Amino acid sequence: MKIKISSKIIPDEKGFTPLEKAAAFNRRLLLVESDAPQTVRERSSLTGFTLIELLVVLAILAIVMFPIYEFLRQGALSWQLGENKTEVVQNARIGLDKMCGEIKHAIEIYSITPLQIRFWWKDINADDIADADEILTFSWSGTGNDDLTRKLDSEIQPTPIANYVDDFELRYFDDSGIETAVLDAIQFITANLRIKKTVQGHDYISQMRKSIFPRNLLL
Ligand SMILES: [Ca+2]
Q1: What is the pLDDT of residues 12-37, one digit of tens each?
Q2: Distance 154 CA to ligand 1 centre (A)
Q3: Helix (H/G/I), strand (E/B), else coil: 81
Q4: Edge-to-edge strand list for the sheet holding 159-173
Q5: CA 213 to ligand 1 center in whole angstroms
Q6: Against a cut of 0.70, is the pTM above it?
């Protein structure tokens, strides 16, 4: 295909970007011999996108992508909230269940306060003697965020059984349902545990209460 220089001017081809200007300039000089009009494909391969077109595309992309981003972000956030909530609830329930289960088997209670209980848990070696590895203490410091702990007399360090404790209280009642501080009169105990975990400004609170009837207390 021969190409010739043409004096024919294409008046509407001015161009905007340097590439377009160059292409328009070339078209003014060069015309295909057949004088057939250029196809859209041919023209776009020379010109590319204009800045306006790019901006419009970016604007449309932003409009389309923002709700998707927001949707995903909210989803991730609520998943995280659920995870934290579940963890806090699980944490409290497991700790409280363990403590109550062990107090329930108490043979003899040695000391009580609202924050602590010390008792002969079980006669593991069946010798009718309360040995150091049979005496348990559950306690909480009274300071928010501290652990509720479990410790055998034979152990040096207490073991945490619930973390992020915000409040913990033990109450002791006699067989008339009246609160008592007399060890021999204790018939049932209520345990109240509140967990509060703060993650990125969110408070996750879980509160539970349980009643314990120690069946094996020596009377
Ligand atoms: Ca024993």
Answers
A1: 556 667 777 777 766 666 655 445 55
A2: 12
A3: helix
A4: 108-113, 116-120, 135-140, 146-152, 159-173, 188-199, 202-212
A5: 22
A6: no
